[in-house]
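Batch 3, record 17
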Amino acid sequence: MSVLCATTGLKPLHAAESTGSTSPTNVSNVMELSLDQLLDVNVDKVYGASKYEQKVSQAPASVSLVMRDEIQKQGYRTLADVLRGVNGVYVSDDRNYSYIGMRGFNRPGDYNSRVLMLVNGHRINDNVYGQALVGTEGLLDVGVIERVEVVRGPSSSIYGNNAFFGVVNVITRRGRDLNGTEITGELGGNDTFKSSLSYGKQFESGLEVMLSGSAYTSGGERSIYFPEFDSPAENNGVAWKSDEDEVYNFFGSAAYSGFTLSGGVNWRDKTIPTASFETEFNDGGEKTTDSRAYLDLKYDREVTETVTFVGHVAYDYSWYEGDYPYGVGAGRVLNKDEAFGEWASADWQVNWRVADRHTIVVGGDYRENITIQQENFDADPFAEYLDDNRSGREMGLFAQAELSLLTNLVLNAGGRFDHYSTFGNTVNPRVGLIYTPFAATAFKALYGSAYRAPNAYELYYNYPGQSKANPDLKPEEIKTYELVWEQGLPANLRFSLAGYYYEIENLTSQNVDPGDGLLVFKNTETANARGVEFSLEARYDSGLMVRLSCAVQRTEDELTQTELSNSPREMAKLNVIAPLWEDKLFAGIDLQYYSAVDTVSLTRGDDIFNVNATLTSRPIGKNLEISASLYNLFDSTDGFSASSEHINSLGSQLNTMPRGGRSFRLKLTYRF
Amino acid sequence: MNKFSPTPTDRLLKRCLPFWRNCLATFLALVFLSSTSAIAIDARALEYQVKGACLVKFGMFVEWPAATQNSSGKSSFVIGILGDDPFGKSFDEAVAKEKVNGRQVLVKRGRSAAELLDCQIVFISYSELERVSAALAIFSTNGVLTVSDAPTFARNGGMVGFFKEATKDGIKVRFEINTEIAGQSGLKVSSKLLQVGRVVTSGKPDHG
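Prediction for the assembled complex:
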């Protein structure tokens, strides 16, 4: 997928350093710019909703942006932390992976296959599980992120698969953003250590380079208590030293004369304390290893003054290996579950600006799934249960037009055709009307449909005596209706209100086939969601930022007429960044409330309340930055629903997943 | 095993929740109250900050005819806004420190052209575009530089029309300038302005 990298060209403002590229700029700063510089300023914009940069208020979706400055001042450690601060988004984790929930949907057991994640426009969701990982297991270290765009609602009309509930587009820092070397060191609770080294530069020849690597280790919580496992046979519900985490990330990019080569790789090893998949609790040997990598070559060219071309070719892989201990003593067997996906892709896109008013985008992409391999075997004595090898291909064509019907009325309409070697064809449209009666007011009326293709795990995974494949699965489908009102108010306030109704068909879920008693994925469920999201944000020259957001949502399984599991009815978030002393000391407060959710075992959890606080200081000039964070200030461990795989060897099922307790982090950053 | 049980703190927390909610509400009320006196402008109004700054810069690259009341003899340099104001109050604060050829910059708002005849530059808002031709005639005889956001403004009787351009780096503010119309009002546009702007003539676009 293509990208128009974020640029401000805003050298004088950047030197002020306090804000990210599209973050607030005060008037006196702007007044200091020369005419040439003024004409080089970018107005606030978003890439992810339409595949080209546009103002947030012109995007055919409800969109949130999180800038690097906010990521630093809030002490966010991972992309999952960033998303937790975003209106209407909730992120659960099961002490292994993090799961994104949007618009009331966070299906237990879904590895984020219903949210599309992009890095600089490159698709991250893999070809085995369709997953995009965002916790410490994610491809990117949070330190390389320049900004995150969260586009709510479906975008299959341009992006195709996975853009079901939303799109998370991550833009990385470029050479000119770093302009030098940066070293960080972190020390945190639970024996957590992290260090990173980054270098970036734009040379006079035009070559721009950015390289960043980081290493992270954590001992994890020494003991975690699971009330559901509280019996003498299960160590009274306490898992000892089973939460270790070890991560290495690398990311780099080089740009020269229209070409950009970028790529990243990560490796992560995590011990699992939850005895999932009926393994032995407190064994200490249950763990997963994940690695994801890609290399992407982009070519970007202005063909004429009004026509631009962007093309990509890329290679990707994803790898997962899980160790699952069964039995105790001499009878202990280590079962290994592995998945390897490898694919090559190419895409192109042409943007045409017509009469300075309309924009037409056409494009296409192709992906060759070179390898889709799933394996399951016992290590010693060796016994193989699954060795499934597949390949396949998928392709899509899309077109979108942004037409200025009147000076203040824009019609945004588009559609996309996809062909899959697995299930065949699908077509998805999106239509949006954007009305801006005043400069500070935008109304949007949006309709769209999206799909999620069945992934290889759902189609082909079979385990003798437990589960079987279903190669006939169809894609899940969603139709959405949404109204958005974005309004700038006096006193630097900005508010937005969105109401939506979603209708989902062919939702894939795993059920027992009554014929043979085997687990199988089927397109059985029909569900709907409706809700309202509200946010009020204020930003001031002093650096003070306050954002309050609330979401009220209801989901329903239409067959059983019950609420979906893991769907909080209410969410409230408060995000404050306050300057305490000039531009030398800032406080960040990140507060989240989620009402209790129904769990997969049909119990009801407790309200979830989380507060993080961070102090950031630059005591001696701009080179050294110190930040101190406290996470989960009130040490509350209530969590979201566990998925059904969190069941141990004795058949005890976890209801909710306890969140990590209070912890701290000290971080030093030095730039030169 | 109570040592590991999370329940006591959780129970405490739940009892405290209403208290924290009240704290939150009070805090927000305070923030919003204090915010009403703040000076800055909405972060996302960057586009109009840029356009506003451009208006001031135009003053430095245009020479007004000495014969009109807008000549340099007057003490301040006045930028008028005709119709709905997209710049906001903060524009006044922003220009407070600005000078054009030694003259203090002021912002004046008006609902009719007659109210703004003492301005050197007038920005004509969207709200006025339907009845713009009468206003243009009045401004043109008084040596006022007319500027607007309308896409074809500079090709339909106006002097400077802002537009936005999507470049590979993002969306930038640009302007078209009609030297013919400006010249008819006796305004002299410096070559610098012609370099960075796009020169057009009435009726058709010119990409020169």
